[in-house]
Amino acid sequence: MIENGMMKNGMIIATRKECIKAARLYIKHLGKARGSLSVMGKQLRELQRELDRMDGLGSSGNFHSGGHTRGAGGSPVEALMERRERIRGQMLEIKRKQAALESQLMNYEQARAGIDKQEARAVHLIDFEGMTQLRASMDLYVSETWAGTLERRGLVGLAMILLGMMDEKTAKELHWNEIGELMARRGADREQPAQPGKAADSGSGNKVE
C-alpha cells in the first residue's frame, strides 16, 4: 500500500490524509443514498400506475367522442398526451438516477473486495452503516483504537481502487473534486515566486495520520 499518497499514472495526486477524507465522504454519501433506491422504485410504480390509468382513459369511447370537457389549452386528448409525456420524462430521469446509484454501489462493493477483509468491514460499519467507532469495534472484536486504524487503512485502499473506476465528471460528482481543487491550488502555489525573506514551503503534504 502507498503510505504517503494515492498514485495515478505513476504520479502522487493526493496525500494519505486527503484520500481518507474524500473516500470517507464518498462512502457516507453512498450509505445515505442507498435508501433512495426503494423510494425511487416506489415512485416508478406509482407513475406506471398513472400511465396505465391514462391509457385506460384514452381507450374509452367517451373520451374520443367528446364526452370529456375540453381544456383551455386544447382538446382533452392533447392534454392527456402531454401529461403522458411528462410522466415518461419523470420516469426516465428516475431510472437514470437509479442506474447511477446502483453503479456507484457496485463499484463500492467491487473496491471493498479488493482490500483486506477486516479493513473493508471497518469502513463499511463506520462509514457506510454510520456506526460509532466504539460500536464497530465491538462487531470487529478489536479495540476502539484499532477499529479506527483499520478504517483509515481501508479508506486509503478504497480510494486508490475507486479513483481508477471514475472518469473526471464522476469523480467531481462523488466528492473527489476536493482532491482536484487541492491539487490545483498546490500547482498555483508552486508557480508563485518565493517572497523575499521567506523560505519556500516544501508542500510535501505527506504527513500520515
Entry summary:
With 209 residues, the protein is mostly helical. Helix content is 69%, strand content 4%.
Regions with little confidence, pLDDT below 50 for 5+ residues: 6-12, 61-72, 195-209
Question: Pairing-aware structural class of the strands and helices?
Answer: mainly alpha
End-to-end C-alpha gap: 15 Å
Q: Number of helical segments? A: 9
- Helix-strand topology string: EEHHHHHHHHH
Q: What's the average pLDDT?
A: 74
Biggest sheet: strands side by side, in what order? 1-2
> How much of the polypeptide forms β-strand, as a percent range?
under 5%
Give the tally of β-strands: 2
The dominant shape is elongated
What Rg do the Cα atoms give? 26 Å
Sheet with the most strands?
Answer: 2 strands, antiparallel
Structural write-up:
With 209 residues, the protein is mainly alpha-helical. Helices cover 69% and strands 4% of the residues. The protein has nine helices and two strands, in the order E-E-H-H-H-H-H-H-H-H-H. It has a two-stranded antiparallel sheet with strand order 1-2. The model is unreliable at 6-12, 61-72 and 195-209 (pLDDT under 50).
Topology (elements, then pairings):
Elements: E1 5-8, E2 11-15, H1 16-33, H2 36-58, H3 61-64, H4 76-112, H5 117-128, H6 133-140, H7 144-165, H8 168-173, H9 177-191
Antiparallel strand pairs: 1-2
For the structure shown, list the relevant keywords.
209 residues; mainly alpha; two-stranded antiparallel ribbon; 69% helix; 4% strand
